[in-house]
């Protein structure tokens, strides 16, 4: 695996949710009528910066709302949480209260992070309120269908609600946990290889270390790891193939080096093949949903013609497959990725 710095050309525009995508979301129970929208939360009078534990600007702000709006916002957000977690069953929020609403000034979607606390035991949870972006929604759907991870989110017109994905941020893990003598470095390297493979197949871009988390699970006689994407802003927009390969981001070099130190070419190819076999199983299990998603996304404009042409040429060269030159959309490229996996695994 190589490691080079990759620069993303510019901020990706936000694409609106089309009627066709809205229909798909309704069919697969991702649509929900919500009492609070993203624009409601944007109506704060002022905000003050939130500092991290080291006294540096966290890029999050604490918005201040008019006193006569706070109760309405908090009650509405509790209903949003009930819809996200329990199909609208309000009993789960009976003893909960909204503790914090925080606004992020960084990134494309400028999300709100909401902390909700159980007053009986002080256990808390987070969820996010964002401006709905069609390409981000496609990223969430592909992650849910093709990765080993379930993704929980809801959409109401121009508002997107996302469940918090727990884990140690990839940059924090690399700095503070990677050298832990109790952790098997080969297992971590193996997971990064699989993550790298999934990102290319699904065309999920910009997976720098701070855009994924590492989940740690103790097992019988060892510790298991899983890398999970937490940011889906750069779903099949860019034309640079390296954007879809986490191994090329300088922020991920500690993981790349781990693979170089602990994996041979044979084991690297073995782990790639394992992930392809898992992807094949998911494709077979969710083929009808994938077909519906493909049919919707192929009717939309979610990137530029230039980006499509650049990427299909790069994919053709990288995978030594001229069939990519026939692709007319990013969706076609993903579909060909999956067809190639089906052919390879069957061999």
From TrEMBL:
Domain of life: Bacteria
Gene source species: Pedobacter hiemivivus
Name the record gives this protein: Uncharacterized protein
């Amino acid at each position: 695996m190589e490691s080079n710095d990759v620069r993303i050309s510019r901020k990706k525009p936000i694409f609106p949710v089309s009627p066709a995508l809205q229909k798909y979301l309704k069919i697969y129970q991702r649509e929900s009528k919500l009492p609070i929208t993203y624009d409601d939360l944007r109506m704060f009078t002022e905000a003050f910066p939130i500092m991290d534990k080291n006294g540096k600007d966290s890029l999050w702000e604490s918005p201040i709302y008019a006193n006569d709006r706070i109760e309405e916002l908090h009650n509405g957000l509790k209903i949003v949480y009930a819809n996200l977690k329990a199909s609208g069953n309000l009993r789960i929020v009976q003893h909960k209260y909204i503790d914090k609403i925080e606004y992020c000034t960084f990134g494309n979607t400028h999300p709100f992070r909401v902390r909700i606390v159980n007053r009986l035991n002080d256990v808390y949870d987070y969820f996010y309120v964002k401006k709905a972006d069609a390409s981000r929604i496609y990223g969430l759907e592909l992650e849910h269908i093709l990765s080993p991870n379930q993704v929980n989110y809801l959409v109401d017109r121009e508002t997107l609600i996302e469940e918090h994905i727990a884990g140690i941020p990839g940059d924090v893990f690399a700095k503070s946990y990677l050298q832990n003598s109790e952790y098997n470095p080969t297992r971590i390297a193996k997971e990064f290889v699989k993550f790298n493979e999934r990102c290319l197949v699904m065309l999920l871009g910009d997976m720098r270390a701070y855009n994924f988390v590492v989940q740690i699970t103790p097992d019988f006689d060892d510790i298991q790891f899983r890398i999970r994407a937490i940011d889906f802003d750069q779903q099949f927009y860019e034309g640079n193939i390296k954007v879809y390969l986490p191994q090329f981001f300088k922020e991920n070099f500690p993981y790349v080096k781990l693979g170089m130190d602990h994996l041979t070419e044979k084991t690297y190819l073995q782990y790639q093949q394992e992930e392809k076999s898992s992807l094949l199983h998911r494709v077979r299990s969710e083929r009808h949903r994938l077909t519906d998603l493909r049919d919707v996304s192929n009717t939309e404009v979610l990137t530029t013609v230039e980006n499509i042409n650049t990427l299909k040429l790069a994919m053709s060269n990288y995978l030594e497959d001229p069939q990519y030159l026939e692709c007319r959309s990013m969706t076609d490229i993903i579909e060909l990725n999956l067809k190639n996996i089906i052919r390879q695994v069957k061999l």
